[in-house]
Write a structure and sequence with these properties.
Number of helices: 21
Number of domains: 4
CATH superfamily of the largest domain: Calcium-transporting ATPase, cytoplasmic domain N
Structural class: alpha+beta
Helix content: 25-40%
CATH architecture of the largest domain: 3-Layer(aba) Sandwich
Number of strands: 27
Strand content: 15-25%
Radius of gyration: 34 Å
CATH topology of the largest domain: Calcium-transporting ATPase, cytoplasmic domain N
Largest sheet: 11 strands, mixed
Oligomer: single chain
Length: 670
């Protein structure tokens, strides 16, 4: 467990509000004015207390606003600690079986069990995977938008970055699928997420540009005021013995000292700290409405001086919600335009676009800009059936956040969401509430089939499948629905589905399909593609030997390819305009992400950071490429780069340090 950051006591927060040169000058002036008012001899001596009291009141109000803002921010930051796991399932010699303990009591060497839905309680080296596969969602640490397939094999590269440590489960990440045993290798601040916390705690707090300017102004003002006070007092030394002072040199000295102090107080802009604090507080409120947490008021002003914005990709520039945006099925050939004996030369793709960029089941399937009624297309109906049944994820509506959230693996959730948009069973959604809308179409499909078993994903065949039979079908004819990597699926397909039946696949057609997939997986969009297929007449359920996963590939043969879906973590709708405004304002934007380089570059093109055909050589680096540079080359790279991909938190600190060395004011967005 990460140690809780001790909050500052109230008295310390109050004192910090007075740790400003201009405020100190005002405080000294108020104290001197108050002391002199005590020795005021005039009848109307009470008015002498007005000025010091007003100054003190302004300073107190200023401190109250500052303390309130920091307390408010600390409460919000405390709520962000939900990434820590509370419990752990551990195997120890002092007790038989698995015992559940508090995660904070774990020590290196403990053997723990984690399974789907668990939050990883420590950094764990996987020693045995019990399920067929194990996937972890580690976007909170590395920024990868899809879950990562884990294994227990040794990693030979001693310099591997966190993203390449496939045999390690990191504290604070989530198990998307599978179950395993592992040995604890790090806890608390020794974990990778703990190291980030350490770096944050050790970061030196530099003064903001506004604070520096105010300090300079305060120093100059204090010097000028001191000179004026001394000059006024010295000039009037000859008048100390005037009869107006009763002939007393001491009374005359005190009188002219009071005049000098009055001039000093008059020269001080008493309202300036209050005006600055009020303006910053208003800016903080506006940022809070955008879900930004401002812990220190002066940091608001720093944003106005920012010359470089270093932004994370996943969840900042993108929604961190994997979404199917394009798909294709097959159509043809057109026998009227096909030479005799050649049924492949006029082979066609039936392409569709899918709207909606979040997990919300809201969007449409379009063909050339026109809405498609998916229920009227046999190929799309079968594709939706595969998406719904070859799937262990779900959508659920969070009423507290008024948002739809994933339950399970991001890629499968994208398919779940696609099924809702397709609505091939023509569910009447007008009578459903938001909770029911989350899975209405999926339930309609899954309730129409009986799922007998699942052959889970494995690295060797790069696919997974489910055996289903339609409910109410007297023939009890089963189907094996399969999804996986296009190359692997296509290699085992013998036919493709078309509206009128099936079409025999040959090598030419397979190459055409792979070329089409390549256009989805490269270029501006760089989508992750999944192939969907069926085995139309599989063997009986009783003949499957499910204890040995090496047999699974043999069962997933002679398949019929139904379609290909392309998905990505889409950019937020407002990001492209924000990038354009930054460029116009002279602010440079650098994307720093843990995701792979190709995906990151495609997102950068979509948001306008890279032009459509701009060369990325010298402007895009991976963490490993950056590490291989000399310090001088690193500095030069940071001056020109627009993207750093596959990086760790230490790289981010290094990049910001180079920017600060070039006198850049940098802001980190995450």
């Amino acid at each position: 467990e990460l140690p809780r950051e001790e909050g500052k006591p109230l008295w310390k927060l109050v004192l910090e509000q007075f740790d400003d040169l201009l405020v100190k000058i005002l405080l000294v002036a108020a104290v001197i004015s108050f002391v002199l008012a005590l020795f005021e001899d005039s009848v109307d001596s009470t008015t002498a207390f007005v000025e010091p009291l007003v100054i003190l009141l302004i300073l107190i109000l200023n401190a109250i606003v500052g303390v309130w803002q920091e307390r408010d921010a600390e409460s919000a930051i405390e709520a962000l600690k939900e990434y820590e796991s509370d419990d752990a399932k551990v195997i120890r010699q002092n007790q038989k079986g698995i015992q559940r303990i508090k995660a904070k009591f774990l020590v290196p060497g403990d053997i723990v069990e984690v399974s789907v839905g668990d939050k990883v309680p420590a950094d764990i080296r996987i020693i045995k995977i019990i399920s067929t596969t194990l996937r972890a969602d580690q976007s909170v640490l590395t920024g990868e938008s899809v879950s990562v397939l884990k294994h227990s094999d040794r990693i030979p590269d001693s310099k591997a970055v966190n993203q390449d440590k496939k045999n390690i489960l990191f504290s604070g990440t989530n198990i998307a699928s599978g179950r395993c045993y592992g040995i604890v290798v790090a806890t608390g601040l020794e974990t990778e997420i703990g190291k980030i916390r350490n770096q944050i705690m050790q970061t030196e707090q530099e003064k903001t540009p506004l604070t520096q300017k105010l300090d300079e102004f305060g120093e100059q003002l204090s010097k000028v005021i001191t000179l004026i006070c001394i000059a006024v007092w010295i000039i009037n030394i000859g008048h100390f013995n005037d009869p107006a002072h009763g002939g007393s040199w001491l009374r005359g000295a005190v009188y002219y000292f009071k005049i000098a102090v009055a001039l000093a107080v008059a020269a001080i802009p008493e309202g300036l700290p209050a005006v600055i604090t009020t303006c910053l507080a208003l800016g903080t409120r506006r940022m809070a409405r955008k879900n930004a947490i401002v812990r220190s008021l002066p940091s608001v002003e720093t944003l106005g001086c920012t010359s470089v914005i270093c932004s994370d990709k996943t969840g900042t520039l993108t929604t961190n919600q994997m979404t199917v945006c394009r798909l294709f099925t097959f159509f043809g050939p057109d026998v009227n335009q096909t030479p005799a004996g050649d049924l492949t030369s006029n082979f066609l793709f039936d392409e569709y676009e899918v709207t909606g960029s979040k997990y919300a089941p809201e969007g449409e399937v379009l063909k050339r800009g026109e809405k498609v009624v998916c229920a009227q297309n046999k190929c799309l109906v079968e594709l939706a059936n595969i998406c719904a049944l070859c799937n262990d994820s779900a959508l659920e509506y969070n009423a507290m956040k008024n948002a739809y959230e994933k339950v399970g693996e991001a890629t499968e959730t994208a398919l779940t969401c696609l099924v809702e948009k397709m609505n091939v069973t023509t569910v009447d959604k007008s009578v459903l509430n938001k909770q029911e809308l989350a899975m209405a179409c999926n339930y309609s499909i899954t309730n129409s089939f009986t799922k007998h078993f699942t052959m889970e994903f494995s690295r060797d065949r790069k696919s997974m499948s489910v055996y289903v039979t339609p409910r109410g079908d007297v023939s009890n004819s089963g189907k094996l629905f399969v999804k996986g990597a296009p190359e692997s699926i296509l290699d085992r397909c013998t036919h493709m589905r078309i509206p009128d039946g099936t079409l025999l696949l040959n090598s030419h057609m397979k190459n055409e399909i792979l070329r089409k997939v390549a256009t989805y997986a490269t270029g501006r969009e760089t989508m992750r593609c999944l192939a969907l297929a069926t085995v139309d007449n599989p063997a009986a359920v009783s003949t499957f030997k499910l204890n040995d996963s090496s047999n699974f590939k043999d069962y997933e043969t002679n398949m019929t390819l139904v379609g290909i879906v392309g998905m990505l973590d889409p950019p937020r709708p407002e990001v492209a305009e924000s990038i354009r405004l930054c460029k116009r304002a002279g602010i440079r934007v650098i994307v720093i992400t843990g995701d792979n380089k190709a995906t990151a570059e495609s997102i950068c093109r979509r948001i306008g950071l890279f032009e459509e055909h701009e060369e990325t050589e010298g402007k895009s680096f991976t963490g490993r490429e950056f590490d291989d540079l000399s310090p001088e080359e690193m500095s030069a790279a940071v001056r020109k780069a627009k993207l750093f991909a596959r990086v760790e938190p230490a790289h981010k600190s290094k990049i910001v340090a180079f920017l600060q060395a070039d006198n850049e004011v940098s802001a980190m967005a995450r």
